[in-house]
Amino acid sequence: LLLLCAAALPLAARGAIPPPEEAARMARFVLHNCDWGALATLSAQEGLRGHPFANIFSLSDGVPGAGSGSGVPYLYLTDMEISVQDLEINSNASLTVSLAQTPYCKKHRYDPQNPLCAHIIFCGSIVKVNDSEVALAKKALFSRHPEMESWPKDHNWFFAKFNITNIWVLDYFGGLKIVTPEEYYSVKP
Predict the structure, then answer these.
(1) Are the CB atoms for 168 and 178 separated by under 8 Å?
(2) Which distant-in-sequence residues (6+ apart) come within 8 Å of 62 by Cβ?
(3) C-alpha distances in Å from residue 48, one per residue of 79, 84, 96, 126
(4) Where is the CREG-like beta-barrel domain (predicted)?
(5) Least confident of 6-15, 128-137, 152-161, 177-186
(6) Segments making up each domain of the chain, as ranges
(7) Which listed site, 3, 8, 63, 156, has its alpha carbon 20 to 30 Å from 49?
């Protein structure tokens, strides 16, 4: 029995998936292990005005590694992007991240819609980061997405973050779990 416990320790140290009863920790874990998410806005574009519009964005809550994430989804944006134009009219959005983009679900043969292939839905708003947060956002994003550093400067890229107001976790059978931002930020991934 001691041998089995000792063998399980390294798995926990590497950041094993949290149990379903720890929904806040699961939300932090999934976000930290995802490199991109689907950001949904209300379109301000002609012909789509007022309709939902989802787009893929690279993101990061911190440098890769167990326990190192801040929980804040950072993004690198340009006003030239259609979803960013929507956000300039209405900054409210939702962001979905899923373990389907990691090896976890494939390894266990979970379909992306299977609740065991955990996904998190955040609601809130997108805001530009202030000067005191730029270095943190830059390190978080460029550590995971080094290509970003070479993107065209004339696109006027800026760092933004997703201000979380609501969180829903689907990581097990029985429906969504609601996590408050306070619960979310009080745990480590």
Answers:
(1) yes
(2) 32, 68, 69, 70, 139, 140, 143
(3) 18, 15, 21, 20
(4) 18-186
(5) 6-15
(6) 23-186
(7) 156
Whether 160 contacts 126, CB under 8 Å:
yes
Residue 19, CA distances (Å) to 32, 36, 65, 130 in order:
16, 23, 19, 35
SS3 175: coil
Instruction: Return the ∠ at Cα 81 (arms to 163 and 137), rounded to 5°.
Output: 40
14 exposure class (CB count in 10 Å sphere: 0-12, 13-18, 19+): exposed
* 104 contacts 16 by C-beta, under 8 angstroms: no
- In this predicted structure, the answer to whether residue 13 has a pLDDT above a threshold of 70 is no
Confidence (pTM): 0.89
For strands 177-179 and 158-170, give the pairing: antiparallel
Give the helix/strand (H/E) hosting 104. helix 103-107
